[in-house]
Amino acid sequence: MMDVSPQAAVSEGPFPFVIISHGNSGSHLLYRTISLHLARHGYIVAMPQHYGNNRNDNSLGDKVENLQYRPRHVSMTIDALLANETFGKQIDSDKIAVVGHSFGGYTALALAGGEPWKQVGQPVAVQHDSRIKALVLMAPAAGYFIPVDSLAKVTVPILLLMAEHDPYTPAWNADVVVKGVPDQSQVTLRVIENAGHFSFISPFPPAMQNPGFLPSTDPAGFDREQFHNQLPAEILRFLNNKLWRLALK
């Protein structure tokens, strides 16, 4: 459930703008704790569902087109919202950020200037977007940026959140980001104690929580509900600090 008012008037802006990119074969609805918190605190938030790489259609999941299309989806979302009669005039185009989880982290890095490579060592042509001014990466799939200088053009501030117990995007993914960007001081890294890869997803309703449904599971003893009482506020503080500071330069 999401507590929203679909037909409500939009307050007078301009407001900063955040796009949330979901993980591989995931859903745009999985990060409601983050999206609602940001929206309640002065952000316009968009949650696109990535074509061909979502829970209902994963036909592009293992194809190079997925690596190419995902960043483009986010840029198209920005274009659409800026051109929208209702939201366009309320968005501050100098304060745009991307929040990405897992493969959404790949998407965010590619958008911000990253040059990805396929696992077989071939470069992938992607569309960058200079409108992106900050990134929040949660357990990002950074393995596509291992070659030297792959992240040399990523110069925006980054909040990098990793899970202590993550078999899908383990600790070396953080090293790829921290060591790959040209200015390590731009990266704020925090490892979430006892968290798992899926702990960044908003808590599921009790009826959906079971060991057979991996996105609902966490390492023993980890309290996802409590974590999501803190995570959105941490993201908000980072974005407030970085986006407004950049605007003053």
Please render the helix and strand layout as text:
Elements: E1 15-21, H1 32-40, E2 44-46, H2 64-83, E3 91-101, H3 103-111, E4 132-138, E5 158-165, H4 172-180, E6 187-196, H5 224-227, H6 231-248
Parallel strand pairs: 1-2, 1-3, 3-4, 4-5, 5-6
Helix pairs in contact: 1-6, 2-3
Would you kindly provide a written description of the structure presented here, covering whatever features stand out?
The chain is α/β, with parallel strands linked by helices and 249 residues long. The protein has a single domain (15-248), classed as Alpha/Beta hydrolase fold, catalytic domain (Rossmann fold), CATH 3.40.50. Helices cover 28% and strands 18% of the residues. The protein is built from six helices and six strands. The protein has helices at 32-40, 64-83, 103-111, 172-180, 224-227, 231-248; strands at 15-21, 44-46, 91-101, 132-138, 158-165, 187-196. Strands 2-1-3-4-5-6 form a six-stranded parallel sheet, sandwiched between helices. Strand 3 (91-101), helix 3 and strand 4 form a beta-alpha-beta unit. The longest helix is centred in the first third of the chain and has 20 residues, at 64-83. It is globular. The mean pLDDT is 94.
Number of helical segments with 4 or more residues: 6
Q: How many whole angstroms does the radius of gyration measure? A: 17 Å
Question: What is the rounded distance between the termini?
Answer: 40 Å
**CATH superfamily caption:** Alpha/Beta hydrolase fold, catalytic domain
CATH classification, class level: Alpha Beta
Assign the structural class, choosing from mainly alpha, mainly beta, alpha/beta, alpha+beta, or little secondary structure.
Answer: alpha/beta
Low-confidence segments, ≥5 residues, pLDDT <50? none
Main beta sheet: strand number and arrangement? 6 strands, parallel
The overall number of domains is 1
Could you tell me the mean pLDDT? 94
- Remind me, CATH topology? Rossmann fold
Second CATH tier, the architecture: 3-Layer(aba) Sandwich
Helix-strand string: EHEHEHEEHEHH
Strand order of the largest sheet: 2-1-3-4-5-6
What level of helicity do the residues show? Answer: 25-40%
* Content of β-strand: 15-25%
Shape: globular
Protein name: Dienelactone hydrolase
InterPro entries: AB_hydrolase_fold, Chlorophyllase-like
Pfam families: Chlorophyllase
Organism: Nibrella saemangeumensis
